[in-house]
Amino acid sequence: MSNSDSFDGAALIGSRAARLRAVMRAQGVPALLTSHPINILYACGARNMTVFSLMGPFRMALIFADGPSILYEFAGCEHLAEGRPGVDQVRPAPGLTALSGAGYLAGAARFAAEIADLCRSHGDGATLAIEGFDPPVSDALRAQGLHLTDATALLSEARRIKTPLEIATMRQAVALVQDAAADLEAAITPGASEVEVWAAFHRHLIATEGEYVSTRLFQSGPRTFPYFQEAGPRRMLVGDLVCFDTDALGWQGYAVDFSRSFLCGDAPASPVQRSLYARAHDQLQSNAALLGPGVSYEAFARAAWPVPPKHQGWGYYCLAHGLGLCGEFPYVPHAFAGQPYDFPGGFEPGMVICVESYIGTEAAAQGVKLEDQFLITETGVERMTTYPFCARLLS
């Protein structure tokens, strides 16, 4: 069965819109204006030129807590959103960047007047949460008498808890991305370049209706230390450690984020490689076992697997992070003995959390990256990503 055979897009979009509007009402925000393409997708289900739209306010969505959702679509693309669930009106997006040239300020003033008129018709006429606009647009909105607040924090709160339909969609996304990861693993052969192997993953992702890969985190051999080195032209050798982080925006735009480390070629793993892998695996499994509904971030962080001193300078910058249509709140920081932990809150049912591990040493000039994705439920935790670990490194 294909994804489209069982997928109810209208219901998914409706469930997200209902949650967003509930959060808006709870926070006393009558209207929200965003140009962020991922938040536009969340709010009204409209996807178009996502990567291009990350470069500026080329598309916008105006959402009312007790009114319509209005999509300002890229000029000439309005037909793409006509009749879509989650979009009540479609209007052409104005040019609201300096690329518009001499007409930029006048265009911003016209747009602000239009938004203010809509806020008087459907909101309280005074308050508007915004994100993703340059100062001249914000100034023009204020000149219309609107009080501006932060839309990013509001949208983050809405996206933090997933609806049941979001969770079902994320499970489908996981299955497709794990298949893409299998293509990548099969392509790891001596002589192949990092970018050639990484491309096998990207090809499968796009061929199964994925959106894009948000990083190029695939590295081999000495480039596995320190971490965060992106795929390049280096050709892999027999015995190389190979680190891979999916960072994939997959089916229906939902992110799938897990990491695995492999061994290139048929040579056995060295004792150092097995030691690094064992420690990374212990860190991942130990910290994952701490997750649960009602567990505070501080309790999680203070009980986290103790990283040996020789690895501490090179570890991953956070213990875990949220996931939805991309990496999301919370990014749970490490705790340090004798220091206060200024990160309130805790894990709740409906949150999707990725637990991170990276273990590497300067002496070995190698490192191992592992990560898995989990769902916090009412009664416990579900591991969403089940891609196998490397048996030759784990033994």
Any overview of this molecule?
This protein has 395 residues and is of the alpha+beta class. The two termini are 36 Å apart. The longest helix is centred in the middle third of the chain and has 24 residues, at 164-187. The mean pLDDT is 96. 36% of the residues lie in helices and 20% in strands. It has 13 helices and 17 strands. The chain has helices at residues 3-6, 9-26, 37-44, 50-53, 104-122, 135-143, 151-160, 164-187, 194-207, 271-288, 297-302, 309-312, 391-394, and strands at residues 31-34, 60-64, 69-73, 89-92, 127-131, 147-150, 212-213, 218-220, 241-245, 248-249, 255-256, 259-263, 320-323, 327-332, 352-361, 366-376, 381-383.
Q: What letter string, H or E per element, gives the SSE order?
A: HHEHHEEEHEHEHHHEEEEEEHHHEEEEEH
Distance between the termini: 36 Å
Helix content: 25-40%
Spans where pLDDT lies below 50 across 5 or more residues:
none
Main sheet: strand order: 4-3-2-1-5-6
For the residues shown, what is the average pLDDT?
A: 96
Total strand segments: 17
Quaternary arrangement of the chains shown? single chain
In one word, what is the shape?
A: globular
Tally of separate helices:
13
Structural class: alpha+beta
Largest sheet: number of strands, sense, barrel closure: 6 strands, mixed
Rg, rounded, reads 23 Å
Assess the beta-strand content as a share of residues: 15-25%
